[in-house]
Design a protein that fits this description.
This protein is α/β, with parallel strands linked by helices. Helices cover 35% and strands 12% of the residues. The chain has a single domain, classed as TIM Barrel, CATH 3.20.20.100. GO terms for molecular function: oxidoreductase activity.
């Protein structure tokens, strides 16, 4: 990326409403994904993490997304310290539904009512609050009907511990079944230039039902930025577990990402900004309201992401020519987006190979 592509003044995020009726949550149209501050992609000191959250806040963003499994609670604890004395200024999301195991690939999805109700209290304690604005089922438990999980989440709303509920990586059918039990505020799934299976069933479902959509990994876990290098993948980097970042797949996908960087350079924007702008353009076509939640450990990288909101902060504009060039890239990506396709919506919908 050239210096001229580095934004000098960040656009102010627009306000969006995720969900409708009693499930409506109003927040900024970009949020911070706080997995990065728990060491998923490399270490970060707590003081640096708090400074980064302050930078995001000063940039006009009030939406923070974390989960109980990120660093086994570390992310929630850091977010909780950041929120001390100003909890009501932020829309706070966290998640339940992945039970700790032997590391990535050995964990299990768990969505029974007892577990959900147990874990919310642990999350509230770590976050230093008595409620969360949005509580997601992190993964759908194959052994528990989605109606049970949604019912348990709904009971937490009635108890005042949660204001809105959501699902992560749910299929279109699972979304409809859960929404019939208790209205969903949002669905969170991976969506990017490189990962597009949600466009077949998930996005049409949320658009029809008026549910917000929260794309995670909108820059392909760093691939769709100007900064990624295979040399950055240290021994403890969680990306080693994902097929995109393994062996020949990584070499191929890095070359494919270079095409995106070239397109971004042609229009003088950071690659991360182009990736975010692309999401807003595609979401408009589906009639979906979105709030992407990119994550990073660096303020400079955050600035590049937020530049994707465009001059007026509403979501940027990607030229028709750029959209056309980006359209077919997902089909060329080597490897699946998850280490276990059964854990993501596209795997259970038959859109990506199952293990």
């Amino acid at each position: 990326m050239t210096d001229s592509a580095q934004p000098e003044t960040l656009p102010t995020p627009a306000t969006v409403t995720l969900g409708t009726g009693q499930a409506a949550l109003t927040t900024t149209n970009i949020g911070y994904g706080a997995m990065s501050i728990a060491g998923a992609y490399g270490s970060i000191a707590e003081d640096a993490a708090l400074q980064l959250l302050e930078h995001v806040s000063e940039s006009g963003v009030n939406f923070i997304d974390t989960a109980n499994i990120y660093g086994d609670g570390v992310s929630e604890e850091i977010v909780g310290k950041f929120l001390t004395g100003r909890r009501d200024e932020f829309v706070l999301a966290t998640k339940v539904g992945i039970e700790k195991g032997g590391g990535v690939g050995q964990r299990r999805a768990r969505g029974d009512s007892a577990y959900i109700k147990e874990q919310i209290d642990h999350s509230l304690r770590r976050l230093g609050t008595d409620y969360v604005d949005l509580y997601y089922l992190h993964r759908v438990d194959p052994e528990v009907p989605i109606e049970e999980s949604a019912g348990a989440l709904g009971e937490l709303v009635e108890a005042g511990k949660v204001r809105g509920i959501g699902l992560s990586e749910a299929t279109g059918e699972e979304i409809r079944r859960a929404h019939a039990v208790h209205p969903l505020s949002a669905v969170q799934s991976e969506w990017s230039i490189f990962a597009r299976d949600v466009e077949v069933h998930v996005l049409p479902a949320v658009a029809e039902l008026g549910i917000g959509f929260v794309p995670y990994s909108p820059v392909g876990r760093g691939l769709l930025t100007d900064h990624f290098s295979p040399d950055d993948l240290t021994e403890g980097d969680g990306r080693h577990n994902f097929p995109w970042f393994q062996g020949e797949n990584l070499t191929h996908n890095q070359q494919l990402a270079q095409k995106v960087r070239q397109i971004a350079a042609e229009v003088s924007v950071p690659t991360a900004a182009l990736a975010l702008s692309w999401l807003f353009e595609k979401a408009a076509g589906f009639g979906a309201t979105i709030s992407p939640i990119p994550g990073t450990r660096y303020a400079k990288h955050w600035n590049e992401l937020q530049a994707g909101l465009g001059a007026d902060g509403s979501g940027g504009t990607v030229s028709a020519a750029a959209l056309e060039q980006l359209e077919g890239l997902a089909a060329e990506v080597a490897g699946e987006r998850s280490f276990n396709s059964g854990w993501v919506s596209g795997g259970r919908e038959g859109l990506v190979p199952r293990p």
